[in-house]
Structures are given as C-alpha cells and as structure tokens.
Amino acid sequence: MEELNAAKVIAVGPGDRDRDGKLIPVSLSEGDTVLLPKYGGTEVKLAEKEYVNICMLF
CA torsion angle for 9, 35, 54, 27 (degrees, to 10)? Predict the structure, then answer.
C-alpha cells in the first residue's frame, strides 16, 4: 500500500459562486488535515518553510 500524503490547511479562500451568484462557502477551515494528490500542486519554499499550493476547482 502506498503512503498517503497529508498536510495541514493554512489558508482558504471565500468559496465560489453558483450560476445565480450565490456564494458557496469552502468546506475546509484553517487547521484541517487533508490528503494531497500524489502528483499535483506547486511546491513553494518561503522563509525556510516548504508549502504546496493546491487549487481545487469544482
């Protein structure tokens, strides 16, 4: 079995809008733990810390 990649959410956006313009909030919060795709995201290093930026569009 492959090892899963998990990470802590450090920031989330406000969400997206539906066809009528109504805001659909993000179902994640800062501090949540999420599973990451094996290949995906952009690795970024800031102030000696490593981050992975993942944009999820639905």
Answer: -60
Architecture of domain 5-53: Roll (2.30)
3-state secondary structure of 17: strand
Break the chain into its structural domains and give their ranges.
5-53
* Averaged pLDDT score across all residues of the chain: 85
C-alpha to C-alpha distance for 28 and 44, rounded to whole angstroms: 21
> Model's pTM, two decimal places?
0.64
The number of helices, as runs of H, and strands, as runs of E, in the chain is 0, 6
Report how far residue 49's alpha carbon sits from residue 34's, in angstroms, rounded to the nearest whole number.
Answer: 18
